[in-house]
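RECORD TYPE: inverse folding
INPUT: structure tokens
STRUCTURE:
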């Protein structure tokens, strides 16, 4: 059997909007993220191994991803791995995909789908934390969904922040670098957190009422990109309650502090897509909206299936 190998170019060819559409179609078709098998974590010498299975009637798949914190210093990607896509009925292999490239497309697509339901058509000021592949992917995903007037990039190194700002300018958006303390969020209507930081990136009291904050970088109980002040004053949306309450420090830490409760979660991504919980543009007096994701196997499966279908001759 000659198993097709779908690399970064094949995956990128799908594009962020089509990837978000694939996720929306899966949820609209009845997929319940709360019932998806949990992600398995295995500590290994180089970092952490993640095993993420998922299945539908059409296809089954599993991602084996490595998270190697020391790799960027070696000039290597932090996220590695592969995705095996199988036929649902026979379990025969259909394709092997580049796991890192799939993650780079899938995670921004999840955020884009949330943004599709939580924000208006125009983003006046986007503040973007991070300068790695996820930051670039999120910028592309937002630009595929919304008209963005201005971007501020904040990163650990000024050079990499300016490189991403220059990329945004080449995409036709006014862009520059931000303050190290994250205070630029005070004028933002959309904030994207795409970092490996274990500590909050900014003061949550500065985020304006009516703004939307999306955090994707952390997936462990002791790490978070936003502080308890933001969570306490926000309408909280998640990709799935079971997933975030099992491993998202952004919510688990405020929960332990007593300023947030699981019952405070307004809805999951499926609730937004199906209309069980209304989205729409928040009123300026209603506080911020906060969307938290940690990455789930069903998302990889939906996007991998779409990539496979898109690459078929």
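DESIGNED SEQUENCE:
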């Amino acid at each position: 059997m000659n198993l097709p190998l779908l690399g970064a170019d094949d995956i990128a060819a799908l594009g962020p909007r089509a990837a978000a559409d694939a996720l929306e179609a899966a949820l609209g078709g009845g997929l319940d993220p709360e019932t998806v098998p949990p992600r398995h974590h295995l500590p290994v010498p180089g970092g952490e191994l993640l095993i993420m299975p998922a299945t539908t009637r059409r296809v089954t798949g599993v991602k084996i991803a490595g998270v190697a914190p020391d790799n960027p210093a070696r000039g290597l990607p932090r996220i590695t791995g592969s995705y095996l896509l199988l036929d649902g009925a026979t379990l025969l292999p259909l394709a092997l995909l580049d796991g890192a490239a799939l993650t780079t497309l899938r995670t921004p697509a999840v955020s884009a789908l949330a943004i599709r339901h939580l924000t208006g058509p125009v983003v006046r000021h986007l503040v973007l934390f991070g300068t790695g592949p996820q930051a670039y992917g999120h910028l592309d995903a937002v630009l595929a969904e919304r008209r963005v007037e201005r971007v501020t990039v904040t990163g650990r190194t000024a050079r990499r922040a300016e490189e991403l700002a220059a990329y945004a300018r080449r995409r036709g958006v006014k862009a520059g670098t931000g303050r190290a303390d994250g205070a630029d969020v005070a004028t933002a209507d959309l904030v994207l957190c795409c970092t490996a930081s274990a500590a909050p990136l900014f003061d949550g009291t500065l985020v304006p009422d009516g703004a939307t904050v999306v955090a994707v970088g952390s997936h462990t109980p002791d790490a978070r990109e936003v502080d308890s002040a933001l969570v306490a004053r926000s309408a909280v949306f998640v990709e799935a309650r079971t997933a975030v309450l099992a491993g998202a420090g952004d919510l688990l830490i405020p929960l332990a502090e007593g300023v947030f409760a699981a019952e405070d979660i307004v809805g999951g991504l499926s609730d937004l897509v199906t209309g069980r919980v209304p989205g729409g543009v928040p009123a300026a007096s209603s506080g911020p909206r906060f969307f938290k994701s940690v990455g789930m196997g069903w998302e990889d499966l939906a996007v991998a299936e779409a990539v496979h279908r898109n690459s078929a001759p």
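NOTES: The first strand starts at residue 5 and ends at 6.
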